[in-house]
Amino acid sequence: MTMIHFIRTNGEKVSIDAIPGSTVMEVAREHDLPMLAACGGSLACASCHVIVDEAWFEKLGELSEEEEDLLDTAHGLTHTSRLCCQIKVSDNIDGLVVNLTPME
Fold first, then answer.
1. pTM for this structure?
2. Could you read off the pLDDT of 35-83 as tens digits, one per residue?
3. What helix, strand, coil percent values describe the chain, rounded to 5?
4. Which CATH architecture has domain 2-100?
5. Which CA distances in Å does 33 have to 26, 64, 89?
6. How far apart are CA 2 and CA 70, in angstroms?
7. Residue 28: CB partners within 8 Å, gap ≥ 6?
8. Domain ranges in the chain?
């Protein structure tokens, strides 16, 4: 199992053991965390936008051009923003910290 730490918009930390192979978006939805994820992970919207902790951002690898384009439509975009449907759970991200963004 891989531990993912989600920080809610109120600052509450929710730590979840995630199954490798799934996406961070799937983990959030399975545990009823507040995330719209309207396209279900098909890389067609930005409603699974999260802000990755600075220490983890570089470890996640390059963003695809499609992800970059969609992030341009996200509210509250930062330099460590990602679409969590594009972050695969693996042993390499054990301990990942992501901040959930307000659903708008």
1. 0.94
2. 999 999 999 999 999 999 999 999 999 999 999 999 999 989 999 999 9
3. 25, 25, 50
4. Roll (3.10)
5. 10, 25, 17
6. 27
7. 6, 35, 37, 48, 84, 100
8. 2-100
